[in-house]
Amino acid sequence: QINAVFWGAMSPRQLIAQSSLGREDSSKSLLQQEDDGMFLESVVSEKALQEHLQHSAIGTMDDHLVEFSEELRAVAKALRRVADGKARAQEEAGEWKRKYELEKLRNLQLQRKEFHVQEEVAIDETHKRIEFSSHQPENEESTQNQNGNCCTKHGICSQEILRRQISQCDSVTGSNMCPHKASFSLAWGCNGENNRQHKHDVVSFESGNITTVARSRKQITLNWESPPQSVVILTKPNSNSVRVLCAEMIRWLAEQKKLTIFVEPRVKKDLLAENMDLSFLQSWEKDEEVLFLHTKVDLVITLGGDGTVLWASSLFKGPVPPVISFSLGSLGFMTPFQSDSYRDCLEMIMKGPVSITLRHRLQCHVLQDSANDEKLVEEPILVLNELTIDRGMSSFLTNLECYCDNSFVTCVQGDGLILSTTSGSTAYSLAAGGSMVHPQVPGILFTPICPHSLSFRPLILPEYVTIRVQVPFNSRGKAWASFDGKDRKELKPGDALICNMAPWPVPTACEVDSTHDFLRSVREGLHWNLRKTQSLDGPKDT
């Protein structure tokens, strides 16, 4: 009713306008509803699209992860196969390398056995001659021993084996290399005996009882058969006193003894810069000429300390002439002669006979795991004191496998290992806890450096063994080898070092004899067992 009254009260124009407004509102509402529906549909479609994309992305990522993990597994399997193949190849290569080293060592042992057999035959022949000479009349024996030789002309005193080796060397280097070399003979002698006859270890096994009848007492003496003709003088560098003494000694040897004098190139240059009158000095220009120096000189004179003697030993890769060492260094175990009385010493030695000490040397071969055949045939390195294998700058302990004549000895874990001669027993080996050994005792000292075991004590091995020290493949660090304190070489895992006694010792002249000089050096050089003398009855009464 109210609506009817409202509509009845309106005019026709108002009704028309109102109806038109109603239609517009209705159309607007319809459009708004359509827009709202389209918006809802778009919102729903976007959500569905996002959900679809999310589901599809998750599915593709899962598929990619599965494929990637499968590929990783395949790569890991391939890497494992490659690692296994490499390990097998390394083991096989190491095994073949060990077989090669063993074969090489067997060949070396066969050569050494042949040499020992020849030496035993020569000694047996000498025994027979000695027995034959012992049955001769006393006047014949006295005539044979007037010159101080221990036996007959062709016995061990004449050193047939050494002469045979020297003749072979001469045939190789050429007969014109040493026309002025002085000849000499070596004799085995015993102090306090006029005949200076060498006594061997004579063992009796009569009635099944082994008894030592006589023990060996020997001192080697050098007798000149012709006077020396040439000398080489090796000096300590950067020392004014040594340079002055060297110039004075050169003038005396040239004027009084008429000797041919060789010096090092640097020494010749310094001396000629000071005095041109020394132009008669001879030297060498190339390193290859040093290899034949032993064929040109009869004596080696060193002015310095033990380091100068080591330097002189390193110059001679083969035989070494007799060495006369004058003490001009800080500490000298191998320099028994005083420089202020060099004229009397040289007069006595050149006149002869003179006692000498045969200081044995070690020859070392470095075998690299990655080396080719050319590097395997390198010349051996000769050392007079010791071969040292240490860990260098590495923070890991050294890990070294040691073999003696192809038999496993031990595995060294610590700071390193020292393989020393008996001449080097008073050097680095002594500082590491090794024993002091007389230089005439044939042997190889096996001394660890700060071992990682309290029960690892030093050893003294016989001189005829061959020692092989190898860095295992599973070693965490490398090792470094030094030869008489120089020429350091790196040893990587798989590398090995073979060491045995060299056939060329260093003959050094003695002031008295080898035992006297050794004990004096120990007392005066190391102050061995030096202590304050105590009273037997306690302190004196005051």
UniProtKB/TrEMBL annotation:
Keywords of this entry: ATP-binding, Kinase, NAD, NADP, Nucleotide-binding, Transferase
Keyword Manganese included in the entry's annotation: no
GO biological process: NAD+ metabolic process; NADP+ biosynthetic process
Pfam families named among the record's database cross-references: NAD_kinase, NAD_kinase_C
EC number: 2.7.1.23
Chemical reaction(s) catalysed: NAD(+) + ATP = ADP + NADP(+) + H(+)
Matches recorded under InterPro entries: ATP-NAD_kinase_N, ATP-NAD_kinase_PpnK-typ_C, NAD/diacylglycerol_kinase_sf, NADK
One GO MF term attached to the UniProt entry: NAD+ kinase activity
Phosphoprotein is among the record's keywords: no
PANTHER family cross-referenced by the UniProt entry: NAD KINASE
Family: Belongs to the NAD kinase family.
Protein name: NAD(+) kinase
Provenance organism: Taxus chinensis
